[in-house]
Amino acid sequence: MRKLALINVVSLVLALLSPLILAKPAYAANFTEASMRLDRMMVSITDNNILVVAKPATTETEGKVKVNFATGFTVDSTPANVTVSTSGLPSTYQGESLTSWPGIGTAATAVSGQLVTFASTELTVGTLYGFFITAGIDNPGSAGEKENAITTTTAADATIDTSNVAVRIITDDQIVITATVPPTFNFTLGANSDTFTSDLSSSSVVSTNGVTVTIVTNASNGWIAWLRSANTSLDSATTGEVIEKTGTVDDSPSTLSAGTDGYVLDVDLTTDSGTGDGTVSIDAEYLGADTSSGGTPSATHEEIARSTGTTDGDVVTLIARAAITAVKAAADDYTDTWTVVGAGNF
Amino acid sequence: MQKILSVFSFGAVFLSTQFFSQAVFSQGPAPTALPSPSPLVPDQPPPAGINLTLSPTLINLTTDPGQPVSAQLKITNNNNFREFLRMDLAKFEAAEGGERPVLLDLTPEDEFTQWISFSEDQFAVDPNETKTIKFTISPPNTAALGYYYALIINRIVIQEPGRRQTVVAGAPAVLTLLEVRSPQAKRELQLVDFRPDQFFYEYPPVNFGVELKNSGNIHIVPNGDAFIDSMKNKDIAILPVNSKRGNVLPQTQRTFVFSWDDAFIVRVPKEEDGNVVKDAKGKTVYTTKWDLTKANKLRIGKYTAHLLLVYDNGERDIPLEAKVSFWVIPWKILAAVAAALFFAFVGVKTTISLNLRRLKGRLGS
Lengths: 346, 365
Known about the structure:
The complex is a heterodimer.
Chain A: H1 2-22, E1 33-38, E2 50-55, E3 64-68, E4 74-75, E5 84-85, E6 92-93, E7 96-97, E8 99-100, E9 110-112, E10 115-119, E11 129-133, E12 137-138, E13 144-153, E14 159-169, E15 185-189, E16 193-195, E17 206-207, E18 211-217, E19 223-229, E20 233-236, E21 242-244, E22 254-255, E23 262-271, E24 280-282, E25 293-294, E26 302-307, E27 311-323, E28 334-335, E29 337-344
Parallel strand pairs in A: 8-11
Antiparallel strand pairs in A: 1-2, 2-11, 3-10, 3-13, 4-12, 5-11, 6-7, 9-10, 13-14, 15-18, 17-27, 18-27, 19-26, 19-29, 20-21, 20-28, 22-25, 23-27, 24-26
Chain B: H1 2-27, E1 51-55, E2 58-63, E3 69-77, E4 83-94, E5 101-104, E6 116-118, E7 122-125, E8 130-137, E9 145-155, E10 165-180, E11 189-196, E12 200-201, E13 206-214, E14 223-229, E15 237-241, E16 253-260, E17 265-269, E18 271-272, E19 275-276, E20 286-290, E21 301-312, E22 317-328, H2 331-364
Parallel strand pairs in B: 2-10, 12-22
Antiparallel strand pairs in B: 1-3, 3-8, 4-5, 4-7, 4-9, 6-8, 9-10, 11-13, 13-16, 14-15, 14-21, 17-20, 18-19, 21-22
């Protein structure tokens, strides 16, 4: 009786422990490597070309490869519409030799929701395989990280290797220009000329009244303005004398001294419009610190001001400043010509 | 000088018509006035500064070698007098920093400027009228890669200087980027740097800079997103990068900036009377703003920004990725909360101690 009871207990224990002792654990391994490369990464791309890459880790006889797309991807429910190909497969992927996926066929064999099944034949552990999904999969409509899964199974659907693969989808910010909202750039000069406030004198630096440049634009990357001086000096045709420019173009304004010949251009920020997303800045060369300073006029187009975005009315003011020696020849035709060019940025 | 040339031209035309007309008359029946070229010369210089509107603001063209490509430019005269204008050409390249152009004069080596023709080189635009100028660029079969034009609209005649005057001439322009497709085109961008302007913030905004280098030979427009993860959640913010579709010219570097300021408490530029307040050094003064509509977005802790930019290499999107972490520590708020908790703790402890002593005293007596 006791022996029988003992045998029953041992048998019961063995029966309980047998799954652990006799059966192999049936968990799937991760691929050694797994990746998905989308040809187009923006939202809502239709029939995106997707490169699926995997390196098997488990020795088994593959019969199928399955790709489970994250929620958001649109998967064509007709298997024949989810086409695949190994044509044009790159010879290497991330520096490693890439082999065409054997037995992948030309289209999916089954589609169930987000899960797409393709045919496969046996893979070799340690070899990197790849194939293209050429149609049938549309990108999600929203940006973010999406987690897909690649799985190989036997013909009887027993999982061999599986890995989750994250892909990121980005927003598409293409600016669409319609006929009703064209990109425009409005450029206005306040006057055709700028007059010195008084006769030039050896006892002081004299400035002009200033000419405004006004820019209104919806150019998304903002605007730039350049100025070119025809003479780089104030020239008198009647006397042949000149008042030379002061300094050099070196990102630093120069200061005039009364009694010494000199000529500079000062650019003031009059209005940085708060409407629009641009911020105006004056080029350091022409940012005079006071009423005696300014930048060196140049015979080439020198940038004088710029903005980073759109505006409904940025205004900069151009001011000439001059000083002369006491012996400068008298004349009323000391002059220069400025050409101011403005454009939307690229 | 321009006036003299204009007068000379007009005189030459006038004299030639007189001579030719007379010759025809002497041969027989009544003469037919022959059309004669008439340069577009205004009678007098413009009375006010230039005021034009151009559209579009930037032109991007692509063609094949030997294939002409056309586009058009609309010019609106906003003045109340007729404008006499001409099309001029310059070229541009990227300035140091890559984010803006440098306007350059043409040189004899710039053959590509000879490929462009305008429907009208000189034209008049009446007040409030819009003139459409079409242009065609005809690259030869040997052309390849990128060419960068500036189409400048100048007045034909500018004002003569008066007493004590400097003449100012204005000229709006449209930048034009032309790509001539070539098997030699190398589209390649490199991600040089991705970082915030600091790594510890009391409050947002967090300002990011992405520096890219175009190591190819054709201009490229990259774009993408930055995904912000908190310590607990992914993608709490998705920020567009280069949503304005800025170009990176070949062999230049350009930095694109963007900000993350979606938070309950943010620092904003201080404004007075609609103007941004600046300190003695010219730097913007900031103040703290509380947005109660975002009360659930108190930013605190470590965040990670994942950058994903893509560019089209002609076949597919090429991704450029990077990530950077930063901290947001609203230390003033934390210090205030800690102080409040400390004093509350001290208060409670003191109260309990007092009550315990009283109780002991009563029990002892």
